[in-house]
Write a structure and sequence with these properties.
The complex is a heterodimer of chains A (about 80) and B (about 375).
Chain A: H1 7-35, H2 41-46, H3 56-82
Helix pairs in contact in A: 1-3
Chain B: H1 2-32, H2 37-54, H3 61-64, H4 74-93, H5 100-116, H6 123-155, H7 161-202, H8 213-229, H9 232-241, H10 247-266, H11 273-287, H12 295-326, H13 328-350
Helix pairs in contact in B: 1-2, 1-4, 1-7, 1-8, 1-9, 1-10, 1-11, 2-7, 2-8, 4-5, 4-12, 4-13, 5-12, 6-10, 6-11, 7-8, 7-10, 10-11, 12-13
The chains are: A mainly alpha (about 80), B mainly alpha (about 375).
């Protein structure tokens, strides 16, 4: 059986795929959420539909998230260029 | 002269590979409006071009693990390409997403079988390197897409609408771009490998050589032109026919596809981008509560997948029988003429139910993209 199907490799693809293919987009959206965090209670009460809420912590967190996503993309491109 | 015919057929196949697979990267972005149809094919075409040039190590790998290359003559290659071309064009006509890789493999195997008998084919390689991965590919991609979709909807619930819309648009474009890049790298290589194989069979190149620059350039241009022309019928099926899609789903589907394609290549399996993309799209339909999945359309597509290898194999075998029967250059010329005539006829027939940037996003009816009657120009909204 094992010479016909490399279950181990397929399993690895699934797990790594979940991390990269589902995990990275989730981190991206978490970044969006952090970015939109409002600056304080008064700003939150205004309920504005802005791209960037004022919160400084939010911007930093968002930056972190986007950095992780970018790293993932760069790895992907590096891998494409480097071949198998 | 024989070599020239084979190279032309190979580039034609590359071109059909291009337009067959545009949808794999761009269908979801076109369907959700993240990119306009023309912008999408322009981006995808450009990235396929870049990707094709990025593929640094090219070998005749399409054939080497599957057939004994001793038996591969120029006529075999021509017949194999005819098989691949035929299946690609027929599935395009019906708007069915189909694996160009598998149709090429089928054609070459069929032609080799006809030329040299079954001992020339590595059956175990076929099963373990092509068939079994192909069975797993859509399932794995689908699973990743289900998880991704659930997560994305959950996490984005509290993001304000404008940020959400803007963010998912960027996410969709980015993930679709990755798929286009990966596709250019993987798929242009197939044709480069076939042309290199033909050159070796012809004696113009030593066995095991790298692909000459003109081969790389011509294949890169052919596949990116095909991508730019855009297989609108297939794009329509992927973007509108399988599920009704929203931006988060688009991003989840393309991310899942990109991850699956890149990771499987990393582990040494060249998965079909079509199987992966379709699996992701269906997965993303399953992942969103209340989303419709048109299982009839999906079923029709999977049946086509099951038929790919056998049918392209038969066409490859028949093509070989025809070309070898007539013999020599004349045989391949006749084959070439038949392929040209058949393609032209199919193309003209397709004009009756034409799909183009203006109607690719219209409401879906029927089971196949060729079902919908487009004789009345204002029957569908743009």
């Amino acid at each position: 059986m094992s010479e016909w199907v490399n279950l181990h490799a397929l399993w690895q693809i699934l797990v790594a795929g979940l991390i990269c293919g589902a995990g990275l987009p989730t981190i991206f959206v978490l970044g969006l959420r952090a970015l939109a965090m409002p600056a304080g209670e008064r700003a939150a009460a205004q309920d504005s539909d802005r791209l960037v809420g004022g919160s400084r912590v939010g911007v930093v967190l968002a930056g972190l998230c986007f950095a992780v996503v970018t790293a993932g993309i760069v790895w992907g491109i590096y891998f494409i260029v480097a071949g198998t | 002269m024989l070599l020239v015919l084979v190279v032309v057929m190979a580039l034609a196949f590359d071109f059909t590979n291009g337009f067959h697979d545009t949808g794999n990267a761009m269908a979801t972005s076109i369907a959700t409006g993240a990119l306009s149809p023309r912008a999408a094919v322009a981006v995808s075409g450009t990235l396929n071009l870049i990707g094709a040039f990025l593929s640094l190590s090219v070998a005749a790998t399409i054939a080497s693990g599957l057939v004994n290359t001793h038996f591969v003559t120029l006529t075999v290659v021509a017949a194999g390409l005819a098989g691949g071309l035929a299946w690609n064009l027929v599935t395009w006509f019906f708007g069915i997403p189909s694996s160009s890789s598998q149709s090429l493999i089928g054609g070459v195997i069929g032609a080799t079988l006809a030329a040299a008998g079954q001992q020339a084919v590595n059956w175990q390689g076929l099963v373990s390197k092509v068939l079994i991965p192909a069975a797993f590919a859509p399932v794995i991609a689908g699973a990743i897409a289900v998880v991704g979709t659930v997560l994305l909807y959950r996490v984005s619930r509290s993001v304000p609408p404008r940020a959400r819309g803007h963010g998912f648009r960027i996410g969709q474009i980015g993930s679709a771009a990755m798929v286009s890049l990966a596709h250019g790298t993987n798929d242009a290589q197939k044709t480069m490998g076939i042309i290199t194989l033909a050159l070796v069979a012809n004696g113009s190149l030593a066995a095991g050589s790298q692909a000459p620059t003109w081969v790389i350039v011509s294949c890169a241009v052919a596949i990116s032109l095909g991508t730019y022309v855009g297989g609108w019928r297939v794009i329509r099926t992927l973007g509108k026919g399988l599920i009704d899609i929203e931006p988060p789903q688009g991003m989840a589907a393309q991310s899942s596809s990109a991850a699956a394609i890149l990771l499987s290549t990393h582990f040494g399996y060249a998965l079909s981008t079509t199987h992966v993309s379709a699996g992701s799209i269906i997965g993303t339909g399953v992942g969103r509560r209340g989303a419709t999945v048109r299982w009839r359309v999906a079923g029709r597509m999977v049946s086509a997948w099951l038929f790919t290898l056998p049918v392209s194999g038969c066409i490859g075998a028949l093509s070989y029988a025809l070309a070898a029967g007539i013999g020599g250059l004349a045989g391949v010329l006749v084959l070439f003429a038949i392929v040209v005539a058949g393609s032209t006829a199919l193309y003209l027939r397709s004009r009756r139910t034409a799909v183009h940037p203006g109607n690719v996003n219209a409401e879906w009816e029927g089971v196949l993209a060729s079902d919908e009657d487009r004789d009345q120009p204002d029957a569908v909204a743009a």
